[in-house]
Design a protein that fits this description.
Layout: H1 2-34, H2 37-49, H3 51-63, E1 84-85, E2 88-89, H4 105-139, H5 152-160, H6 164-178, H7 206-236, E3 321-327, H8 333-343, E4 349-356, E5 361-362, H9 364-370, H10 377-380, E6 383-394, E7 397-406, H11 409-426, H12 428-433, E8 446-450, E9 453-461, E10 465-472, E11 475-479, H13 482-496
Parallel strand pairs: 3-4
Antiparallel strand pairs: 1-2, 4-5, 4-6, 6-7, 7-11, 8-9, 9-10, 10-11
Helix pairs in contact: 1-2, 1-3, 1-4
Keywords: Membrane, Transmembrane, Transmembrane helix
Transmembrane segments: 210-235
């Protein structure tokens, strides 16, 4: 009886040990599936270090899990409790000692053996029934499927199978640990190329391919257009040059000079604007006297020629003095203007005249053209003939300005108001020549009054340097300081006073 109980106990322990190992293996697989590989590897290594504690806890959990495991427990109390099969309670088996004296001879011995065999068969039948129930209980635990077509049971079955390659790898690993040289295998003696694993690159979609090609072609087109434009403007297109009109040649030209106290009455030759007509305000009541004397006919000679003489225009306002600056073929207008500003020491307003080597006078338009700062097209057609360039001594420095006749006050005022945001940028060359070295302190124009005349101004620096313009008495006044604007307005008031 004790031997049968030991067998049952051993079967129970084996079943419990298998169930414990199976569930521990399932937990390891679940950790590998749910955690990152590095983290899962560390967790499993820690569980292997505490393997005995984990197995003990799992055994205790299996024994106390639910009522489904309890049918295995009666094996431990086989001798004290009856075996129940099919809902019927069997009577407990009791061991009774048979007295040989009660039976006679061999019949008594045979009866004892038969009883013992019956008891053994009954016990074997009960043990088989218990084992069958235990197997049924183990198979009744259904393992839920995880992601994929395989269940956990299938995965465990596959993982429990060890391939020959893995066994060979284990043997080589154990050999390295023990310090022995690994035995050569047939698989290791095969010569073949090394397999290099590379990460897969995601293929681009058709839309991305087409878009990349369009973008590449667009870049090529833009680069080609920029190259063509640069070649055209800097290589093919010739640079523009200032053409000086030729003066008419006469045998004898008599031109009066301007007295010190009076103004000349003749009309100058301007570069950049047409010559004035007879009814122009610049003509006045005086006329230029030109006498031509025909030369005597000579068979072998031609009429003599004379060099044209520069004639100063009549100033639009009264000035203290006139200063002529000679502009040579290699002279920079900007440098000439800077030098003149530094050397100007005269009081009040000084008229500035730019004269070429051919004795031609540059008017306002010619002056701006040489500096490459021309008027905008919507302003040029609103200006009339007649202008004057001015210097004004203001303390230790001089300021530049000019006065020009206009045709339409209202139209010019609107055009200038529209041009204000770009005036500083468009005439950057002029402002730089006049001493501007940094952006304006105020980036917009404001309005002010001086002697009843309204004007607009933008401040470059606090040293009374900026852009000031006004439309007064049919003239456009543009200066680079408030003091110069105030002085010019006062002079223009004197010319219209009765």
């Amino acid at each position: 009886n004790k031997e049968q109980a030991g067998v049952s106990r051993k079967s129970y322990d084996e079943a419990l040990q298998k169930q414990t190992a199976l569930e521990i293996r399932a937990q390891d697989i679940d950790i590998l599936l749910r955690k990152p590989f590095a983290s899962a590897e560390g967790i499993i290594a820690e569980r292997n270090k505490q393997k005995s504690a984990v197995e003990a806890a799992k055994k205790q959990e299996i024994e106390t899990r639910s009522e489904q495991v309890k049918p295995l427990l009666p094996v431990l109390n086989f001798y004290d409790k009856p075996v129940v099969e099919g809902g019927l309670e069997a009577t407990p088996i009791k061991f009774t000692a048979t007295k040989p004296e009660a039976l006679l001879g061999s019949e008594a011995q045979t009866a004892v053996k038969i009883k013992q065999q019956a008891i053994i068969r009954e016990r074997e039948k009960n043990l088989a029934l218990i084992q069958q129930k235990a197997e049924t209980q183990r198979e009744s635990f259904i393992v839920s499927k995880i992601k994929g077509p395989l269940s956990k049971a299938d995965i465990l079955l596959k993982l429990s199978q060890v391939s020959p390659e893995e066994l060979a790898g284990r043997a080589r690993f154990m050999a390295r640990l023990s310090g022995r040289a690994p035995s050569p295998t047939m698989g290791s003696m095969k010569i073949g190329k090394e397999i290099v694993f590379r990460p897969l690159v995601k293929k681009s979609s058709l839309f991305e391919k087409v878009l990349a090609r369009i973008f590449f072609l667009l870049i090529i087109f833009v680069v080609a257009v920029i190259t063509v434009v640069l070649v055209y403007f800097y290589v093919i297109l010739p640079k523009s040059e200032i053409s000086l009109p030729a003066l008419p040649v006469s045998p004898v030209v008599t031109i009066p000079t301007r007295p010190a106290t009076t103004t000349p009455t003749s009309t100058p030759i301007f570069i950049g604007q047409p010559a004035p007509l007879e009814d122009s305000p610049l003509a006045g009541s005086a006329t230029t006297t030109v006498t031509t004397t025909p030369a005597a006919p000579i068979a072998t000679t031609t009429a003599p020629t004379t060099t044209p003489v520069a004639v100063l225009p009549q100033p639009l306002i009264a000035v203290q003095q006139t200063k002529t600056l000679q502009l040579g073929a290699t002279t920079s207008m900007a440098e000439l203007l800077k030098t003149a500003l530094q050397e100007n020491q005269g009081p009040g307003l000084t008229e500035i005249v730019f004269q070429t080597n051919d004795n031609l006078i540059l008017g306002l338009n010619g002056f701006l053209t040489v500096l490459q700062t021309p008027w905008p097209e919507n302003i040029t057609d609103k200006l009339a003939i007649g202008d004057i360039l001015l210097f004004f001594k203001q303390g230790a420095i001089s300021r530049f300005g000019f006065v020009v006749n206009i045709k339409d006050n209202i139209a010019l005022a609107l055009a200038l108001k529209t041009w204000e945001p770009q005036m500083e940028k468009d005439w950057a060359g002029l402002w730089t020549a006049l001493g501007k070295t940094k952006p304006a302190e105020v980036g917009y124009f404001r309005s002010a009054l001086s002697g009843g005349a309204a004007f607009r101004y933008q401040t470059f620096t606090k040293q009374d340097f900026g852009i000031c313009y006004a439309i007064f008495n049919g003239k456009l006044i543009l200066t680079t300081s408030y003091a110069q604007m105030k002085l010019i307005i006062n002079e223009l008031k004197k010319t219209v006073a009765p």
